[in-house]
Design brief:
By secondary structure, the protein is of the alpha+beta class. It is built from 8 helices and 3 strands. Strands 1-2-3 form a 3-stranded antiparallel β-sheet, with helices on both faces.
Length: 178
């Protein structure tokens, strides 16, 4: 899940990174390639990312770690910042936004992407215990009422469980805007 905000921070704070690392960014986001994420972290470090995370209003996130502890509120704040950049008109904003369409194993995209434009990035790890997660976060561009969705779970490899949850979240959003 942290690969998404990291790549957005690079595009916003280090604009030439997209030109230099476009293919690596694409693998990192589209298929959640861990080696691509490691390559980006090794190339660009954490200084600009840490500033970006702080600007989003998140405190207590150790940006030095590749995979971090994060609350749903913190992840929602990061995705709200993603949204701001995606529609800012700044260098790389269009390129970056499009990286997040039709990403691998995203229940948000898989469930709502046929009805709406969805920008999302899932994350998962199945090593048991604490390292047994299936997460997803993104932005649903719903008929002039875009919203951020964050799903943090221990339901590793249970993508079929996420679809009803995503549908329920969208239904609640629909009730809120009517």
């Amino acid at each position: 899940v942290m690969k998404g905000p990291y790549v957005v921070s690079l595009n916003e704070r280090i604009p030439n990174s997209a030109k230099k690392s476009e293919a690596t960014m694409r693998k990192c986001i589209k298929i959640s390639d861990n080696d691509a994420f490691t390559e980006l972290k090794n190339t660009y470090g954490n200084v600009e990312y840490t500033k970006w995370v702080t600007e989003a209003g998140c405190k207590g996130i150790n940006t030095k770690w590749k995979y971090i502890d994060i609350t749903s509120r913190q992840l929602a704040l990061l995705w709200a910042k993603n949204y701001q950049f995606f529609y800012s008109g700044k260098t790389n904003s269009d390129f970056c936004r499009e990286l997040f369409v039709n990403t691998l194993n995203s229940p948000i995209s898989d469930t709502l992407g046929k009805k709406y434009t969805v920008y999302s990035k899932a994350g998962w790890i199945g090593e048991g215990g604490y390292y047994n997660v299936q997460n997803d976060a993104g932005i649903v561009m719903r008929d002039g009422h875009p919203y951020v969705v964050v799903i943090l779970s221990t339901a590793y490899d249970k993508l079929d469980w996420m679809s009803p949850l995503t549908t329920a979240i969208d239904s609640v959003h629909e009730e809120m805007i009517q």
